[in-house]
Structure formats: C-alpha cells, structure tokens
C-alpha cells in the first residue's frame, strides 16, 4: 500500500482536506484529513465519492486543432501566433481570457500576469463574476478591501446563525454539519432566509420564505427596528464606522415591521420572532451565498447585511461576523491574485499608483490601465465582433452564463476560440478551434484558498496521463512563445507561489491586509510540506481598523428596489440552483454511478396550486419559457416552493440531456456595481408537453448515437449508462442506439410496449424498453444484469424478477439506499428518528449528507411520501 497524500477536495469552497491513498495507477482510496482545520476528517457525499471520478473516461488527453490530434508545439505555436496577430492588428483589447475559480492560485496568477502586464488589457474575467463578485463589491464598499471577516471557528462560537440565500445542507454540507454540531453542543439557533423551503430548513428554528429579491427590505427593516429599540452599538459606530449624513433618518422611513413584512410577503409574527432573536443574541454569524449575490441588486443586498453587523458591532469578534461563503474550491485564490476584470492584482485596483507599482514589480512592458470587460459584457463584445480571440480555461460558459443561446452564437462567431479543459466533450469545447488537455484534480499541483481564507495545498497523487499538462505550464508556454521568455520562466508551481507572495507584500506598508511576506522566500521543500494556514488572522478587523484611507468602515445606504410584479405573459418567477450530488456541468460528478441517482433527471419544482392551475401532474414533462429561450423539464410538485415561483437545476448539458437547459433561460441582466447576473429571478411561464410513449435505455458501452427524442437524459449506472426517454411518433429510431449482437424482443401491441435486449457472449449489452400505456419494469434489476454473465431471453420476461419495484431516488449515496426502501423500513419497523433509520439501513451513518433528507422524509411520513414513492 502506498503512502497517503494530503490534498484538498476538488469541489466546493469549504475546502476540506483529503487523505488520498493511491491503490493503483488510476485508483485511489479517499478519506477526510483529520488534521485539516476545515473538516477535521469529515467529507460530504461528493468528496467521499471522488475516487469514482479519477478514471480516464471522457478525458481530453491530446492537444487538438479542430478534430485533429497534434503535438504540444504545434498547438502552442498556433495559440501564441493567433493571439499575437490579433493584438498586432486590432490592439490588446481585441483578445480575452475567460477563466475560473477551479484553477489553482498559481495558474490564475500566470494568466492574470500575462493579460494585464504583458498583453496590456484587463480583458480577463472569471466565472467568479457569476458567483461572488457582488460580495467582492460589497466588501470593497464597506471595508475598503475584499476581506471575508469570519472563519469557520466563528460558526462554533456563534449563538445565532442566519443563513441568507444559502442551501448549505446541499452546497456546503460540511459547514452545515458544523452548524448542526454547534446546535447540539451549545444550542445555537438557526434561521434560514430563502424563498424555498430547502433541506437546509429541516434543522432550523425558523424559516423565513421571503418573496424573491426582497432581502434589502428585510435587512433594512431589522436594522431600523434595532435602532428604534436603541440596540445599535453607538460606541462602535462612533469609533470605527463612517456613517453618511441622514443615514438613520432615511432608514426610519418606511421600514417599520409591518411594511417590511408586507414587502417581503412574510407574516409579521415571524419577523417579530426573528427580530427579537437577533436582538437577544449578539454572537451572530450571517452566512450568505447565491440567493444574495446572484441578483440584479446583489451588491446592495450584501451591504444591507454588512450594515447590520457594523451597526450592531457584530464583527471582528468570536462568533460575530457577516460571512460570504464561496462556491468554488479556489474562488478566493482568484480574488487574491486579482483575476477579475475589475481588479488588478493582489487586492489592488486600477488606481494609477497601483498600476505603476505592479508594472514595476513585473517589469511589465504594457500594463493594463483600466478595468476590462466583465463576463456578460465580454461575451456580448465577442458576439458583436469586438473581441476576436478568446481563451476559456476551466469553465463551461456555453452552459453557465445567462442567456446561453446568445453565448453560443457569440462563440460560433468568434474567429479564434481556445478551450483548456480536462474533458474531451463539453458544450463549450464544441466551439473551440484549439482544445488543450489540462491536468485534472489528483494530477494538479498548487494551492487553493477556501471560504475562510485558509490556504491549502492540492497535491498530485497520480501521474499526468498522456499529453495532459498543468494549466500554469500551458499559459507560460504561450506567454514565452509570444516573446516574454524570462518573465514567464517558471519551472514549478513554487516559483509562481513565491512571486505571488512577494507581490502581495511589495510596497504594501500595511495598506492591504493580504500580505504573504512570510512566504516570499519559502523553499521548494517547505512549499511541498506547506500546512494549511489562514491569512489575515482569525478576526481581521478585531482592532476596529479597516482597509479604507481613514481606517473606518462604511455604512452604505441601500434601498429596496421595487420587485417587478409578474406580467401577463410571464406569470411565474424562475429560480435556479444546485442539487446535492451534482457539481455544475457534471463533468466530474457525472462519472459517479453513486452520485448520479440522487436526482436522475432535471426537474422543474412547482407548487401544487400552480400545477393544478396549469393542469400539471408529478412526472409530466413541461416546458419552461422565458424571453431568452425555453427548455423541457420533468415536473416535481413541491409545497416548499412559494406559489408563483418555480425552480430548476443548473447541471444538465448537451452531453447529458436533450432538456433541462437552465442556462438558456435567465436574463443577461446584471448588478450595476458588480456585474453579477441575476440568476435567481427570471420572469417565466410553464406549459405541459404531451408525449405518447416513455421508457428507458440501458447501455453497457458508451453510446455513439445519442437518443434523439423529445426527452432523453443520461445518468451513469454501475457498468454502463441509463437513459430516460420520452417522445412522440414511432420510437423505432431509438434502436439505432443499441449495439450489435444477439437480439431478443418482446412486443405487447395492446399496451404499445416494445422491449428489446441485445446480448453479446452471454452478457447484456443493451436494453430498450418503451411503452405507451403499460408499467415499466425495474430499472435497478436490469442494471444489475449488466454484471451477469449468463443472460438469456428471460431478461425480458413480462413477469418475474424484472418487475421488482425500484429502490426509488437515491437518498443515501454512500450505502446506495433509495426513497422507497427508507419509506418501507419506516413503515414496517416503525422508525421514529434519523439514528433509527441509520441503525436499520445504514443510511446517514457515513458522510451524513443525507441526514437532512432523512429528517424531511420522517416529517412527511406517512401520507405524502407514501404517495410520492409510488
Ligand atoms: N452540491 C453542490 N454543491 C455546490 C455546488 C454544486 O454545483 N453542487 N457549487 C458550488 C458553487 S460554485 C456555489 S457558488 C455554491 C452555491 O451555493 P448556494 O448559494 O447555497 O446554492 P444555490 O442553489 O445556487 O442557491 C442558494 C439558495 O438561494 C435561494 N434564493 C433564491 N432567490 C433568493 C432571494 O431572493 N433571497 C434569498 N434570501 N434567497 C434566495 C435559492 O432558493 C437557493 O435555495 O455551491 C457550491 N457547492
Ligand atoms: N442559472 C444559473 N447559472 C449559473 C449559476 C446559477 O446558480 N444559476 N451559478 C453560477 C456559478 S456560482 C458558477 S461558479 C458557475 C459554474 O459554471 P462553470 O464554471 O461553467 O461549470 P463547471 O462545470 O464547473 O465548469 C468547469 C469546467 O472546467 C473543467 N475543469 C475542471 N478542472 C479543470 C482544471 O483544473 N483545468 C482546466 N483547464 N479545466 C478544468 C471541467 O471539466 C469543466 O468543463 O455557474 C454559474 N451559472
Ligand atoms: S463540503 Fe463536500 S464538496 Fe465541499 S470541500 Fe468538503 S467534501 Fe468537498
Ligand atoms: Mo459558484
């Protein structure tokens, strides 16, 4: 057995430490790192199943020009030449990079340096624009620097935790477990502010289902109420905060409890309860994410939260802070190097002295002197032909930007598109002239910064496969080929890390808290052995001194913008977000059979009252339409939705589905300060889509021909792939997806059922089951047959084992336990609580990510779940 390697999780901004023990060239055993401060050994369902995603299935392993494999020299020369030619002809602002919080800090640093110091443009933006740029803008306005003034330890020390626009139980599960532990150990209260009742609300004392987009009203209302009760901290305000003239007078108008409750459409009694709890609990952490940031008023929403903390002195103390939690593994590292178009480098903006300072430090020939285009504007500029060469790294904008159909048109139009990715087939890669194979998690080497400023190493535990190369290497090779040999002569990530650390310290003079001077001369061995450490200390503003010129924080006056009432053609409001067991565009989580079955299809969640009006039933297909585009989803009824609101997930792409394309739907409208798109509220309508037949397709080998029908969604299953299909007309064309082999068939004309199995050397190679009126056989049983070695025609028997009931949607990914099994056990064994389910079935006893779901199932039992489990 080889030695365990300590690294950091590939997924979310919690930044859990992982202990990875290779068991073969491409196999690994994954455990939580007991010594890592973020998780102390725990991992959620996604982290736990990382080992299932490190095989080479679907990887891009060679540089490609069009569909042709080429050597690195040829590909790099072409990229360097096309960028240099475009710049020579049309100037530096005619090219752009679009990068990602999934790059390592070292990769990010090199990309930022090349664009801003050498090409001489600031047209480098990142998917973090879609993620936390409103938090960055809010921090800068309030603190004078982009500092998250909290750490996870504050969650352990808080008496009240307020989650605003955060589905923590699904998106930051280990933080959620820490919150639950604090509740158990010290009775910490938990309030969730979210229009949807998510699984995060299962463990909460109070859920405020506010009307989408009314967070400013809520926070202002609370602050006005605190002020009226004399509960603001005047001493703290006088000593450490600059308050604009008339701030309190203005706040006193129109923010009484009743008006606030009316604006937010929540009962005044619930607000009263929340306000009193807030007043009584000075140790408050307000943790927020996309429900706050992804709004056309996101920056104001961030400042409304920070105002509340500043005015009550709940900042810079144990258990008291506004806490913007980040999404991607290295969203924070990107902010630290300055990889947004609106920042320069190392927490410096484009003030002329900063431009001069960074220029001196890099010995840069052509410094960018003004901010570049932010993501949405950048792609608009590409569509308008103003940007003529684009390099996309570690992000999938054809899926994840708002109004994705326009983004695809822009990519189509762009004369030169380079995509660096780890996967061969992505929706964005389909538009690339050149595709470059990047090193993946487990091969990459460098650092990441998590939500609480803790910097950890990502270490490789597998060799680079075939031609794959680290992103920093790819970028520096292009830079050198563009003529900047010595400025990009990096040999290893440690060289880049030292330069980044030196820049944060260079002529800093205490102006910026981000100062990694201690690391400026770190040796290669010390870099290799680096332990997780937090920059900026535990409580950055403990002394009440901020990064503004006068060292005072700012109260920023913010007013609630009117929330547009639903218009006739668009009676619904579309909210979008995430599932527990999938990550973004599924390029990694989609490889795991265990993660795949928590949600097999993209659902549109609808309140039962709306469904009734629209004539929709659970399991129907329905089309969501907005002014930007439309897509089909499977209907799920949920009384956790507010009437009038619907929710769809962001994960499905051309690679996995014909429907479920959430990216086509949101408006490209952005927050005026941050440029972050308002992904969470888009006017929409919903209508039923009728289909004549439905069924599924199971295949052992990856398919060549994708099922081309109205509805076809793919999930990975043990030993193959499962497609759910539905459509109209003759389904015979689906047989084109089946492999060659011995054909077994069973047709039931009365029910319109067609069952076809293909058997190759006694093993099941593919099954197609389609019916017009009849019931479908068990998918789980048939999937199990992929592993059997003596399959015969009986596999299609209309009776027999093929008709066993399915396990239902996977609830516990670790032990593969489905909803139907849990409901049956609750009913038969009279289980009363989550530990009892654990004892009976094992569910919830490993990573714990499903515990909120188990609690929800218990709450709903018996009737609703028994109905839903049919
Ligand atoms: N499983 C999983 N985890 C992930 C990811 C993933 O893809 N999958 N991605 C990671 C990334 S990059 C990110 S950014 C984070 C995102 O983590 P979260 O922000 O927790 O996730 P979302 O589902 O995008 O949205 C959060 C909630 O905001 C609510 N919301 C919508 N509108 C409003 C509003 O007007 N006000 C309020 N108060 N709330 C509102 C939504 O109903 C939703 O429940 O997750 C990270 N973790
Ligand atoms: N409607 C709606 N849209 C949203 C959101 C929403 O809530 N609603 N959320 C937004 C948010 S917060 C985010 S963060 C984005 C995420 O959206 P994206 O960034 O587009 O999603 P990913 O699937 O993470 O894309 C990462 C790509 O990089 C590749 N990759 C992974 N690791 C590496 C690497 O080390 N190097 C290279 N070169 N490539 C790599 C992966 O294979 C994948 O193709 O989506 C945004 N879009
Ligand atoms: S919470 Fe889960 S996904 Fe996030 S870093 Fe930890 S193990 Fe990874
Ligand atoms: Mo994100």
Structural commentary:
By secondary structure, the chain is an alpha/beta fold. The chain has six domains: 5-53, Phosphorylase Kinase, domain 1 (2-Layer Sandwich); 64-129 and 330-534, Rossmann fold (3-Layer(aba) Sandwich), CATH 3.40.50.740; 133-324, Dimethylsulfoxide Reductase, domain 2 (3-Layer(aba) Sandwich), CATH 3.40.228; 572-689, Barwin-like endoglucanases, CATH 2.40.40; 693-797, no CATH class; 810-869, Arc Repressor Mutant, subunit A (Orthogonal Bundle), CATH 1.10.10.1100. It contains 29 helices and 34 strands. It has a seven-stranded mixed beta sheet, with helices on both faces. A hairpin with a 2-residue loop joins β31 (753-760) and β32 (763-771). α2 packs across α20 (471-481), α3 packs parallel to α15 and α8 (215-228) runs parallel beside α14. The longest helix has 19 residues, at 72-90. It is globular. Bound molecules: ligand MGD (2 copies), iron/sulfur cluster (SF4) and molybdenum atom.
């Amino acid at each position: 057995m080889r030695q365990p390697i300590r690294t950091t999780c590939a997924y979310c901004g919690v930044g859990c430490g992982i202990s990875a023990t290779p068991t073969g060239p491409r196999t690994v055993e994954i455990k939580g790192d007991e010594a890592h401060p973020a998780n102390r050994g725990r991992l959620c369902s996604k982290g736990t199943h990382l080992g299932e995603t490190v095989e080479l299935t679907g990887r891009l392993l060679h540089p490609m020009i069009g569909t042709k494999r080429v050597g690195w020299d040829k590909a790099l020369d072409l990229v360097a030449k096309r960028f240099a030619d475009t710049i020579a002809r049309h100037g530096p602002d005619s090219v752009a990079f679009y990068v990602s919080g999934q790059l390592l800090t070292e990769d990010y640093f090199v990309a930022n340096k090349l664009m801003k110091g050498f090409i001489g443009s600031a047209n480098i933006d990142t998917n973090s624009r879609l993620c936390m740029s409103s938090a960055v803008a809010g921090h800068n306005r309030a603190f004078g620097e982009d500092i998250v003034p909290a750490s996870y330890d504050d969650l352990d020390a808080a008496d009240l935790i307020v989650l605003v626009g955060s589905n923590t139980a699904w998106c930051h599960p280990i933080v959620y477990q820490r919150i639950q532990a604090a509740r158990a150990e010290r009775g910490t209260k938990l309030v969730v502010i979210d229009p949807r009742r998510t699984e995060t609300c299962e463990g909460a004392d109070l859920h405020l289902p506010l009307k989408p987009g009314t967070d400013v009203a809520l926070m202002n209302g609370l602050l006005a109420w605190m002020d009226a009760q004399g509960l603001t901290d005047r001493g703290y305000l006088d000593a450490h905060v600059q308050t604009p003239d008339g701030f309190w007078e203005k706040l006193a108008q129109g923010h009484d409890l009743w008006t606030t409750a009316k604006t937010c459409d929540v009962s005044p009694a619930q607000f009263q309860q929340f306000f009193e709890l807030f007043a009584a609990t000075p140790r408050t952490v307000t943790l927020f994410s996309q429900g706050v940031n992804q709004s056309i008023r996101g920056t104001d929403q961030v400042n409304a939260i920070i105002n509340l903390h500043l005015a009550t002195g709940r900042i810079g103390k144990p258990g008291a802070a506004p806490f913007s939690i980040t999404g991607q593994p290295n969203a924070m590292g990107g902010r630290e190097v300055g990889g947004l178009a609106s920042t320069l480098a190392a927490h410096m903006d484009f003030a002329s002295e900063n431009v001069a300072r960074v220029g001196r430090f890099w010995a840069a020939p052509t410094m960018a002197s003004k901010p570049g285009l932010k993501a949405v504007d950048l792609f608009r500029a590409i569509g308008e032909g103003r940007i003529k060469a684009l390099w996309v790294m570690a992000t999938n904008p054809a899926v994840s930007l708002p109004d994705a159909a326009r983004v695809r048109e822009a990519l189509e139009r762009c004369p030169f598109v380079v995509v660096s990715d780890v996967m061969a087939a992505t929706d964005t890669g389909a538009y690339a002239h050149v595709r470059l194979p990047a090193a993946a998690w487990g091969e990459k080497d460098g650092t990441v910064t998590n939500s609480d400023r803790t910097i950890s190493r990502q270490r490789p535990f597998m060799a680079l496969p075939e031609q794959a190369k680290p992103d920093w290497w790819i970028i520096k090779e292009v830079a050198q080929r563009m003529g900047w040999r010595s400025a990009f002569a990096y040999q290893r990530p440690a060289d880049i890390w030292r330069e980044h650390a030196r820049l944060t310290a260079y002529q800093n003079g205490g102006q910026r808290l981000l100062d990694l001077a201690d690391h400026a001369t770190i040796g290669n061995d010390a870099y290799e052995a680096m332990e997780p450490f937090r920059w900026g200390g535990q409580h950055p503003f403990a002394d009440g001194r901020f990064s503004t010129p006068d060292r005072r924080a700012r109260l920023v006056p913010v007013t609630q913008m009117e929330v547009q009432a639903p218009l006739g053609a668009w009676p619904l409001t579309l909210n979008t977000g995430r599932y527990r067991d999938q990550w973004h565009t599924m390029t990694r989580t989609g490889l795991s059979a265990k993660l795949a079955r928590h949600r097999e299809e993209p659902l549109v969640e609808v309140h039962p009252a709306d469904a009734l009006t629209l004539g929709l039933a659970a399991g129907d297909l329905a089309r969501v339409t907005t002014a930007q585009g439309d897509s089909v989803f499977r209907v799920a009824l949920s009384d956790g939705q507010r009437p009038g609101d619907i929710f769809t997930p962001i994960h499905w792409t051309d690679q996995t589905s014909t429907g479920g394309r959430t990216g086509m739907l949101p408006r490209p409208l952005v927050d005026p300060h941050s440029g972050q798109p308002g992904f969470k509220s888009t006017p929409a309508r919903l209508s039923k889509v009728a289909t004549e037949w439905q069924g599924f397709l199971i295949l052992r080998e990856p398919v060549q021909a994708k099922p081309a029908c109205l509805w076809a969604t793919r999930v990975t299953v043990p030993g193959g792939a499962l497609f759910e299909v539905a459509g109209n007309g003759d389904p015979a064309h689906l047989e084109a997806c089946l492999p060659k082999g011995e054909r077994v068939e069973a047709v039931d004309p009365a029910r319109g059922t067609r069952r076809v199995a293909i058997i190759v050397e006694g093993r099941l190679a593919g099954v197609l089951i389609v019916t017009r009126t009849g019931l479908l056989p068990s998918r789980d049983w048939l999937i199990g047959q992929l592993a059997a070695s003596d399959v015969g025609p009986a596999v299609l028997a209309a009776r027999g084992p093929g008709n066993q009931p399915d396990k239902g949607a996977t609830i516990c990914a670790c032990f593969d336990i489905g909803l139907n099994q849990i409901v049956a056990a609750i009913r038969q064994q009279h289980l009363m609580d989550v530990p009892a389910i654990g004892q009976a079935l094992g569910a919830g006893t490993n990573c714990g990510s499903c515990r909120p779901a188990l609690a929800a199932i218990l709450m709903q039992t018996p009737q609703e779940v028994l109905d839903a489990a049919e």
